[in-house]
Amino acid sequence: MTSLPFSALEIEQYFDRLWPICRSISGDGLRTSFQILQELIPLELKEYATGQKVFDWEIPKEWNITDAYIITPSGQKICDFNVNNLHIVNYSIPFEGELHYNDLFPHLFTIENQPDAIPYITSYYKETWGFCISWNELQTLDKNGVFKVVIKSKLEPGAITVGSLVLEGETKSEILLSTYLCHPSMANNELSGPLCMAFLYKALLAIPKRKYTYRFVMAPETIGVIAYLSDYGAEMKKNTVGGYVMTCCGDDAPLVFKQSKNKNGFLEKCTEHALKHLQLPFSVIPFAVGGSDERQYCSPGFNLPIGSITRSMYHRYKEYHTSLDNKSFVSFEAMIQTIDVYLQCIIAMEQNIIPICLVPYGEPRMGKRNLLPSSIEPNDKRRKDIDRMFHLISWADGEHDMIEIAEKRDESVSEYQDILAKLIDEKLIAIK
Amino acid sequence: MTSLPFSALEIEQYFDRLWPICRSISGDGLRTSFQILQELIPLELKEYATGQKVFDWEIPKEWNITDAYIITPSGQKICDFNVNNLHIVNYSIPFEGELHYNDLFPHLFTIENQPDAIPYITSYYKETWGFCISWNELQTLDKNGVFKVVIKSKLEPGAITVGSLVLEGETKSEILLSTYLCHPSMANNELSGPLCMAFLYKALLAIPKRKYTYRFVMAPETIGVIAYLSDYGAEMKKNTVGGYVMTCCGDDAPLVFKQSKNKNGFLEKCTEHALKHLQLPFSVIPFAVGGSDERQYCSPGFNLPIGSITRSMYHRYKEYHTSLDNKSFVSFEAMIQTIDVYLQCIIAMEQNIIPICLVPYGEPRMGKRNLLPSSIEPNDKRRKDIDRMFHLISWADGEHDMIEIAEKRDESVSEYQDILAKLIDEKLIAIK
Amino acid sequence: MTSLPFSALEIEQYFDRLWPICRSISGDGLRTSFQILQELIPLELKEYATGQKVFDWEIPKEWNITDAYIITPSGQKICDFNVNNLHIVNYSIPFEGELHYNDLFPHLFTIENQPDAIPYITSYYKETWGFCISWNELQTLDKNGVFKVVIKSKLEPGAITVGSLVLEGETKSEILLSTYLCHPSMANNELSGPLCMAFLYKALLAIPKRKYTYRFVMAPETIGVIAYLSDYGAEMKKNTVGGYVMTCCGDDAPLVFKQSKNKNGFLEKCTEHALKHLQLPFSVIPFAVGGSDERQYCSPGFNLPIGSITRSMYHRYKEYHTSLDNKSFVSFEAMIQTIDVYLQCIIAMEQNIIPICLVPYGEPRMGKRNLLPSSIEPNDKRRKDIDRMFHLISWADGEHDMIEIAEKRDESVSEYQDILAKLIDEKLIAIK
């Protein structure tokens, strides 16, 4: 593993600050979260106003909330938004009133087979209200009583906020890193994404020379990304060579690489090469439309080469979209490793150039260039580097990229970097 | 299985009428057989006159026969054509005479290792005569006696008869269905073919909308098809997208799909997809020149994408080309299933269009189109259809056909028909 | 196995004459070796003068030697060049002097873990001198004594000698056969190559009709081939369809086919087809730059389709590059088989034409051409040839070569030669 310019503890400190904020696809909780993350990554924010058409969609009203709770017939305050912001159905309209249990019940959401968990429920496009409650707590309610309901929310014209940043490289070809910011207090399926992206940005800054331009997008899922694509999609379609939706990457489950639609593309070649040589357990799954914002980036009109590297993936762990996806579910050491995995995959893309031999007729005479030790024992560790040097020169015909060349010896492209640099210095190799 | 507009009993009744007729590659037995089958399928008949050149071949003389038998030295009538028309070598020239056993013997054909079977022998292109006899009966003949031989046949200028029909569809692209009519009383390797074709025609008529034009060819094997191709081959080469030689499809052995020469073509994709999802036992074998009229359709000059779906295949069952390939060898229930299999394969071709998403930038907002239920439980059976809808839209990039899209979820293309129709109605999808 | 126009004994006799000569990449030992081999194959010799630039290289000085030895403190003559020419480091500069053991030691080369073997060491491009000695003998030397060293060599401007021959065929397309001549007394890794090439030449001469032109190159490894390529490389790049570096082919280990860089090329198809149907044990390995002159032929600027068929391969047997790679390591019967294997692979290339059917519409009527027996029993051995005939005609669409056609029936292309000739005579088939 590379040494990264930050620690697990730093990630944890940002996690703790972001955790209690009630985020949604719009509103001040979202804005506050962006402000905190901007300390790490200088995202530019753009507000898309309510009612704006973005492709097939329209920006919805902005939602803000200050309080919400239920008072039971016995006077107990339950489903208190200020205790756990999952208690309120996200985007609930304002409401105050007294209801008999029978009338309240259709507004209560629970998960019978996870009796301790509060579910996470939203209603962005249908104006209604509701509360989420654990099955166990639901059983304690008086079925004959009258409950007082208070929801102090606003659903009004406003905007949704989208963050993005373009980090320029030597070429206009782009690698996209995208994550979403819109879930209230959830750990693996939300905060791991923005946190890993923000710290990955710091790691990328530390790379001295970047061939690719990096585009970072942090936006409310679906509507935020559709809004962003309505501005930048055409440009991204022209320039994007690969990228990832960063999500569900915060626990220590084995890595999962979800491919883009082009399962034999540049992204897939580089990512699978890097993962294989990292010697961590991982699996590869094909693109499927269920998931996150890859469904926007990979929609037929864009079809960008965007995949995703996750840990415990959406829909595949029982804590998903419940109050059990919390700090104890994730690991900040695991996030450090996740960031490094993303970094290594990106470096594989950076390194996967096509070398061309400039002395292509017969083998070059290496002795006269001081590229060979004057004598070498068969077991000398430098022997492998000499073999790699001749191997690289021989295959540098402009038809093979560095990963293909390295894989012919079942090696990682990273083991050829020093040799490649030397051969370029000696004018034996150029980059196509 | 689909419900077909006919019963096994109807097929059996036609079988019983066709069975006793002595067919050959020409003659009145052939014409009578066509007349009966025309009750089911309105084939147009064309007569190709003796002597006409058809590609590398020439139409032979027409053969008719009314009687043939042998009288043994003890006065017994054997090898009686009117008892079993296999007794006479098909295309035997007229002959009457008395011969010693030794002179008769070279004209007798038998199968030693199937001692009860009368073989089926022809001599279309060498003018001779002969009788077919079971090994057991042959043993009873008096090797020192004189036998009287009577063959009342005619081999004279005339014609061979070819039946065909073009059933027009929405496009000029054609699917070919071809079978042969020329064998005397044989069940699996002859009558199953014409019968399944004639009834399949009725099933196809029942399909409300057919994209493809269907060409039916029923002809004497080899020479009949070569004659037909000399008229229509160029047209068929231009229009044919797939098709089948229907033969050996009358018993209940597992299905065999014999591919055309292009083992990765449209025909193969659709047929193998349909067979796989029908969940019947089947195997796939590559094109081989041994077989039936696919050797003409797939000859280098035409190379049409024509395969074959059979049950017990020519050369692969011991009753083949003997008197044991009779009614007790076949099953009319099995023929019903065979017809349905052909129908399902054809429907897979009809359904395998390429969809194009008309709202391709980001996912379309389905909620506003009433394409989603307002709420849905995770285990709702409609969940699968919703998943299929998003899946189809996402892959409708004009690069994937419906089979490829369905197979990504290991599903049958038939499960997407209602969704596809809905999305076309909503102008979310068009057909390429 | 084919019957070859020579015997193992003849090969052995040439081996015995060539064995004692001290060859190098230049010099009179090399010239004498060429003269002996010219009795078998009329190679033209060309001298490349010292100092000539050949691509990235320069022709080195010429080396000749008459004597070399060491006198021990006790007066014993050891490391005597005239006893075993491996004792002297190849290309040692002249030297005479007396040295203490400590000063002599850096000039001695040995192999500790093969204590009986004298290693083979060269120093073509660094002017120095040295002796090779077995580990066991090294242990007997007096570590406190003074040794007299005598090396009567010359390292002066001169030339290196390269042999080659072009045997013209019906077309300009070429098959290359290349081997090297530069090692002193070594059996598998040297003499097997020139001997098998020289006798293969005789076998090729015996083929009545050769489609391909054959280019034979026998040269000092690396520098000799680079020099040759500087003259003929451009021409070879234009014409070469396949070829082999013949080396390490003298013992009876299983065959190894080392592919060219294009693992799916014509060379690979023909060689692997031939090897498979020869039913000898063999393995196939991909191109790797370690090896012999294929690294020159396959360098990016040329990338010729050159492979190699070996027995015990360089670096893979412990006797390699030692005095143990001697007559007892090789087998002249094995060399006969090696030559036949090369011949069969070459014949597969000769036979692998693309047939085109000239009567392509429907099957040709074979009966009228007397290409079918008038009657044939099912078990007649000729049945297979009839099946092959129809099979060949059906696939003769100009898209399939003879190996592809034969492999569809899992047969060798050689089994189709008589049928192909007959069909060409009958004007049913032409060669594309």
Can you give a write-up of this model?
The structure is a homotrimer of 432-residue chains. Chain A is α/β, with parallel strands linked by helices and 432 residues long. The first copy, chain A, contains twelve helices and 18 strands. Chain A has an eight-stranded mixed beta sheet, with helices on both faces. In chain A, strands 5-4-9-6 form a four-stranded antiparallel beta sheet. In chain A, α1 crosses α5 and α1 crosses α9. The longest helix of chain A has 20 residues, at 332-351. Chains in contact: A-B, A-C, B-C. At the A-B interface, α6 of A face α10 of B.
Give the SSE layout.
Three copies of one chain form a homotrimer.
Chain A: H1 8-18, H2 28-38, E1 44-49, E2 53-54, E3 57-58, E4 62-71, E5 77-78, E6 95-100, H3 101-104, E7 108-109, E8 131-132, H4 135-139, E9 146-156, E10 159-167, E11 174-180, H5 187-205, E12 213-219, H6 223-239, E13 240-245, E14 255-258, H7 266-278, E15 282-285, H8 294-297, E16 306-310, H9 332-351, E17 355-357, H10 382-395, H11 402-407, H12 417-425, E18 429-431
Parallel strand pairs in A: 7-8, 11-12, 11-13, 13-16, 14-15
Antiparallel strand pairs in A: 1-10, 2-3, 4-5, 4-9, 6-9, 10-12, 14-16, 17-18
Helix pairs in contact in A: 1-5, 1-9, 5-9, 7-9
